[in-house]
Amino acid sequence: MINITFPDGAVRQFEKGTSALDIARSISEGLARKVLSASVNGQVQDAARPILEDATLKLLTWNDTDGKSTFWHSSAHLMAEAVESIFPGVKFWVGPPVENGFYYDMDLGDRKLTEEDLGKLEKKMNELAKQNNAYLRKEISKKDAVKYFSDKGDEYKLDLLQGLNDGEITFYTQGNFTDLCRGPHIPNTGFIKAIKLTNIAGAYWKGDEKNKMLTRVYGVTFPSQKELDEYLHLLEEAKKRDHRKLGKELGIFTMDDDVGPGLALWMPNGTIIIEELEKLAKESELAGGYKRVVTPHIAKENLYLTSGHLPYYKDSMYPPMELEGVKYYLKAMNCPHHHKIFAAEPKSYKDLPLRLAEYGTCYRYEQSGELFGLMRVRCLHMNDAHIYCSKEQFYEEFKAVNDMYLKYFKIFGIDKYVMRLSLHDPTKLGKKYVNEPELWKETEALVRDVLIKTNTPYVEVPDEAAFYGPKIDVQIWSIIGREFTLATNQVDFAQGRSFKLEFTTHDNKAETPLIIHRAPLGTHERFIGFLLEHYAGKFPLWLAPVQVKVLPISDKFLDYAKTVSQQLKKADIRAEVDDRNEKIGKKIRDTELMKVPYMLVVGEKEMTENKVAVRRHGKGDTGTENIGEFVNRISIEIKERISE
RNA sequence: GCCGUUGUAGCUCAGUGGUAGAGCACUUCCUUGGUAAGGAAGAGGUCGUGAGUUCAAUUCUCAUCAACGGCUCCA
Questions:
Q1: Is the domain of A445 the same as that of A508?
Q2: Fewer CB atoms inside 10 A, N or C side of chain A?
Q3: What is the residue range of A597's domain?
């Protein structure tokens, strides 16, 4: 007998060799029908595998992330079986579960998959699923495994086998499909009730662009049709929040072929948001002791040679223009310009820390395939600043920057983010990273120290640093599920030297300052793109392009509406009058669709009483108020930057 | 940059080898209406661009540009 410990702490005895599935069955048939895999002593494995010793057991179902992964992993195998039956001779690479479903990479030779094929594959998968074929696990020696795939002529699986040793190689077979796989899998294909193959894409073998491109098919499956329907509905909802769609509907930005890809044109509504964000940045930077500067959009080649950017990032910069025998580049970053401002006048320790801030315009030649709405563009406006400080000042400065991030996150209600401490890879010194092994270690320790001492949750990622030093990136997720670096906070020990930046210390010696690059609000492009999705276009009052729309019941009250709007404007409230010859219902509908926070309906009653009937977006009629009261109330909402 | 898909009116989308249609938006008129679409009329497109096949191309072929979904990349 063996002791099985359940998640609630209960311990029960079972016969040795019993499986998680048996155990589930002993609890209830219903549970057994839901078990997808099992976590045995923390190890996720097939529910059908015999348990041979005392163990803690968690039965994994659709409600567990690991259960879902098992389900989707098995679905990938099911899809592979369908592909193989329709396209014999296909060779497979890997087919893992992902956040929302699974994919399988395959080499179809000269054949191409079409959308129609996806329909056929779905149909085939449904057929195969109904056969309730078990996923059978088999341990196999490396020799036999190699033979199996050599006979098949499958160079991809042979490549995978190279990295594996005897004792860790298993095959899984369901129906007519056998795959090299470490598992685990669901008990049988019958669990898969609803199937949707979502798209066909190319993917480089092993993720290396030098390698052959394989065909990747993405799909998602569910234990019931209802869940698939819900998922598809969710996708529809997400589409409505896409910043590209909202940006168009709300008149925030536009792109134009004649202007160029990745070059956003900010429309009047978008510009208001930009100006509000800059106002916020200026306020907090003023409070933080920053000084504002302005620098040109171009500079001579030499500046970027000094900074070291050209050798590292030439491909990402617009090609130079040559004038009078001198090459000029559009700036891809503001730092070299700021360094020159630092260098313009001799500095002493009394001038430090020096904090130079600018909403700088940068141009980056991102690869065409990378462009994505406002999230990835070629012209960007960065909430940039550089802090020049001594090593002793570093901790306080870095912490202050961190605090600024947190302050912003609070204002915008950003609670899902991850701070990534990006470190260098010592094997790439002198190539991807400046060759200063000691300084790397030192500064990485400094940054880690700040994060630990301030109790900031973070993850460390190797080989992601800037070429001049370690950095902290703030990762966020767009509603479409893409991950972005929203903001960045970097340490730079290299450029100070290359620009020969110096300050005179207490004891009259020359020292190079450390530089902190920081951009808590990232770029206008990415940040507003994010905010559009974050708020689903329903901007808080302080950011809303139109804050109040005055809606006269009919033309008779148009003059009164204009008077109201004038009073609002006098109080710096962005107000407009809907002077169209339309019924009030229509005016309300259109204003709701434009997501204007406040609507003031004015007619006979309001005019005689000198009042307004207030309607809040999404909430409806909230009653009448005196104009003065209303102005006072929302002025506070604006000033405090309250988000609902 | 690579693989795939798409490109028709401001927007959303039909459609066809014989030089194009709907709804919304827009303009004008009627209507002056109290909390999510009042009515009528009108205007608007060399069907992404270029070339080829054809008596004839928006439709077929090729190229090109752009967008979209991925891959790679992201100071």
A1: yes
A2: N
A3: 548-639
> What is the distance between the alpha carbons of residues A124 and A301, in angstroms, rounded to a whole number?
59
Say how far apart CA A142 and CA A162 lie, in whole Å: 9
Structure tokens, A232: 């598809």
CATH number at residue A562: 3.40.50.800
Residues A335 and A306 in one domain: yes
Cβ atoms < 10 Å from Cβ of A433: 24
Name the closest residue (CA) to the C1' of nucleotide B65.
Answer: A257
Give distance CA A71 / C1' B16 (Å): 46
Domain boundary among A505, A534, A563: A534
User: A279 Cβ partners below 8 Å, 6+ apart?
Assistant: none
Does residue A577 sit in the same domain as residue A521? no
Is A543 inside a domain boundary? Answer: no
Tens digits of per-residue pLDDT, A584-643? 999 999 999 999 999 999 999 999 999 999 999 989 999 999 999 999 999 999 999 998
Q: How far is the CA of A199 from the C1' of B19 (A)?
A: 37
Chain B footprint positions (protein CB, under 7 Å): 1-5, 11-12, 26, 29-38, 65-75
- Nucleotide in closest CA–C1' contact with A617: B36
Distance A291 CA to B4 C1' (A): 49
* Token pair in block for residue A528: 């507003």
Interval A166-190: pLDDT, tens: 888 999 999 999 999 988 999 999 9
